[in-house]
Amino acid sequence: VTSHPIPSGTRDVLPDEMRELRAISATALRVFTDAGYGEVSTPALEYESTLARGDVSHGLPAYRLFDEQGDVLVLRSDMTVPIARLVATRFAHAEPPLRLCYLAHAYRGVRPQRGQSREFLQAGIELVGAPAPEGTAEALTVLCDVLDAVGLAGYRVGLGDVALFQALLDEADVAAPAREAILTALVARDLVSLEREVHELGLAEDLAGPLVRAPQLRGGPEVLGALEGHAHEAAEGLRRIHALLAPRVAARVIFDLGLVRNLDYYTGAVFQVYDPALGEAIGSGGRYDDLLGRFGRPLPAVGWALNVERLHIALAGEERGA
Amino acid sequence: MTSAPALTIAVPRGALMRDTLDRLDAIGLDTAEVRANDRKLLFRDVGVVTMRPSDVPTYVSAGAADIGIAGKDVLLEQREREVYELLDLGYGGCTMVVASVGGADPMAEALRRLGVVRIATKYPKIAARHFEETGRQAEIVEVKGSVELAPLTGLAEGIVDLTATGTTLAENGLVVREEIVRCTARLIANPVAHKLKATAIDALLERLRAAGA
Fold first, then answer.
1. What proportion of chain B, given as a percentage, has pLDDT over 90?
2. What is the bridge-based pairing of β-strands B94-101 and B67-71?
3. Do the beta carbons of residue B31 and residue B48 sit within 8 Å?
């Protein structure tokens, strides 16, 4: 066989796999449609200045090129920022809420391994103009509807709030540079360094304790009761979401007070989808109440995306394990 | 106990193995079978898999093991692995150092006259980062074995390596010029297992914390 390589982190999909991926996608689109979400498509290439409004940090996006005008183009690193642009321009006067969904490839410069492609297929929704907690509860419900419909059995949804740990830092009056060091450790999941940074501040135990313990607090609604002071207030949003969830959705939720995302546009509730059959998250999402405003149409919004390839791996893993 | 263990633990073979097994014994696991078998790698009854130390983050980040024990040196060299670092176990203390031949420092001479210093190491990322952060241009030469040989043969002016006592360095006429970071054994966890097996992981964490105190 002659070698004609394809770029690192990309791959070809052959009929057997394609049939299964297509079945997952079709099921997701059917659930989206039934829930009142309209499918949209946007260009794979956007101006870099457009994606920069999303403040997408963490090395994303990774593929850039120039057009004939010398403008910098970028392959989209997710669909949330392009849809924020789309809403602000194509639906500038439409009455909210807007329910949009997509099935689209996105591109990131990840280190290629199983489930980590540089070109990956996402199935997701964006619910624009529906504030917390109702909008968040609807997004979580549609998420569970899709996962139930494709037949994933063991999945759970980790639910946190990016404002929560910030509230703990506020309460303890932690300023830069210690604040950045603590948040960096939290994002890197390095709880040993986090504890060290907190102890170096010499805070009283009632302030230091919650900072050290919060990233380890995860479980049922009882973890929300373990909070005091500012953090208790900051968790009010999560309690309100929980109160709105149907029992079948609530049963899937793990409250995760240490959950932070490295995408800068998230403002409130954030979530990640886990399944015992896969060692990494299958999908993720959250509230981004400021992002639309950066495009001139200030509306609260929430959305999520499932990685179709990882979802497929998890389904196959559950089949093998069952 | 005949039921399957709640967690799969990745245990590094090599320098950290004995202390790791001692600590696991102290919290009530029976690791006698692991100690008795040099060749066997998978011990389903106790939920232990043994492997080369630098493979521990690979198995844990992929979820092939739920938790594992890895040196901070290994974790720093593999920053891109997504794992929780839950506990400093305290043992396996070593220091990542910059060393060169004793006497007038050949690294300083290379930097002054040639602008670039050549550094041999088994830890290319830690070494590159350290020289980057200290504002010096370095050419990192990755070697797989006895790194002490490199400055003695002219392959490099200095080395970045892990040292516990400094004996091997001294025996080869090398002196420590800089300490980069102190490294100990850490308990790490797969991010998904950290959520889905929270009770089992927290219980193990508490016992390990108590056993180490």
1. 85
2. unpaired
3. yes
Query: Which tokens hold the place of B52?
Result: 């080369």
Q: Are B137 and B116 in contact (CB under 8 A)?
A: yes
For B118, other C-beta atoms within 10 Å of its C-beta total 20
The per-residue pLDDT for A322 is: 56
For residues A83, A88, A91, A92, the Cα torsion angle rounded to the nearest 10 degrees is: 180
Give chain B positions within 8 Å (CB) of A193: 85
User: Who contacts A281 (Cβ-Cβ below 8 Å, separation ≥6)?
Assistant: A158, A272, A273, A274, A310, B191, B192
DSSP annotation of A268 reads: S
The whole model's pTM is what? 0.89
A:B CB pairs within 8 Å:
57
> What is the nearest CA distance from A218 to chain B, expressed in angstroms?
7
Residues A225, A208: Cα–Cα separation, whole Å: 18
Q: Residue A163 — pLDDT band, cuts 50, 70, 90?
A: confident
Length of chain B measured in residues: 213
Residues of B in contact with A254 (CB under 8 A): 195-196, 198
The 10s digit of each residue's pLDDT in A270-281 is 999 999 999 999
**Mean pLDDT, to the nearest integer, of A108-122?**
83
Between CA A25 and CA B38 the distance in angstroms is 48
Q: Cβ distance A253 to A194 under 8 Å? A: no
Interface mutation target, options B73, B182, B195, B205, chain A, most CBs of A under 10 Å: B195
Quote the CA–CA distance of A106 and A119 in Å, as a whole number: 6
What string of DSSP letters covers A131-176?
-TTHHHHHHHHHHHHHHHHHT--S-EEEEEEHHHHHHHHHHTT--T
Cβ A303 vs Cβ A126: under 8 Å: yes
pLDDT in tens, A44-61: 999 998 988 887 655 556
A293-310 residues labelled b (16+ CB within 10 A) or e (exposed):
bbbebebbbbbbbbbbbb
